[in-house]
Design a protein that fits this description.
247 residues; alpha/beta; Rossmann fold; eight-stranded mixed β-sheet; 10 helices; 8 strands; 19% strand; globular; binds zinc ion
């Protein structure tokens, strides 16, 4: 149970009828796997650590680069050249020493055995990768393991978020994006990205994760598309495809 110190720490969150003491306790006992520790993953991780998610597992193979610092605000100049998972773990534990953070230096979707181990006791998976093949790998492994996940993507001044349930009754990522072709090259490296746009999408993923972990149901299978140039949000409801072998 939450002691007085934790009650004070999370008081503004516990005050919300949507969270309450019961939801906070569920958040404290929750485990989340965050795949990718760049712009999305680092921001989602900060929100979840701050909110008191009991166990976070971070996966990323890259090191911090100077060109990350304009948007990946969890990192400091002194983190440049350090593995992102280690630098992020240090920041998260400095923010909240009550939680457990595990850092995995490597890629998700390369070794099925390793993926299964990483998914282990996760209650939810956050996609914070930057390519279609990684998202399809997350879709496949979370479907097999029966885990819900939240995809997120951001480039230029646009972003997308969608959540998929444990059952995939609403359809799946493959129904929404059948192609695994990465060649169109929509990534930050060659398209550019504005920091706050990543922040919007990461905040949205973290918000959905916290509501789910505290016991709320999410609107599964709805792709939310954010366009900062028009300050506009569009919604597309995913339709399960009959020909999709995944659903
Ligand atoms: Zn499908």
């Amino acid at each position: 149970m939450l002691d007085d110190k934790l009650l004070e720490r999370y008081s503004r969150q516990i005050l919300l009828p949507e969270i309450d003491l019961v939801g906070q306790e569920k958040i404290r006992q929750a485990s989340v796997l965050i795949v990718g520790c760049g712009g999305l993953g680092s921001m989602v991780a900060l929100f979840l650590a701050g909110a008191g998610v009991g166990k976070l597992t971070l996966v990323d193979a890259d090191s911090v680069e100077v060109s990350n610092l304009h948007r990946q605000l969890a990192f400091r100049e002194s983190d440049v050249a350090k593995p992102k998972v280690q630098a992020l773990k240090d920041q998260l534990l400095a923010l909240n020493s009550e939680i457990t953070v595990t850092a995995f230096l490597g890629r998700f979707g390369v070794d099925p055995e390793s993926d299964t181990g990483l998914l282990g006791d996760a209650d939810m998976v956050i996609d914070a990768t930057d390519n279609l093949s990684s998202r399809h790998a997350i879709e496949r492994s979370t479907r097999i393991m029966g885990k819900p996940w939240i995809m997120g993507a951001a480039t230029r001044l646009h972003g997308q978020v969608a959540a998929f349930s444990q059952s995939r009754a609403e359809g799946c990522y493959q129904c929404m994006t059948p192609s695994e072709d990465n060649s169109r090259g929509f990534d930050c490296r060659n398209e550019g990205i504005l920091g706050p746009v990543v922040g919007v999408i990461a905040a949205w993923q973290a918000q959905d994760a916290l509501l789910f972990l505290s016991g709320k149901n999410l609107e599964w299978g709805v792709l939310r598309i954010y366009d900062a140039t028009q300050q506009r949000i569009d919604r597309l409801v995913v339709t399960p495809r009959a020909e999709c072998h995944a659903s």
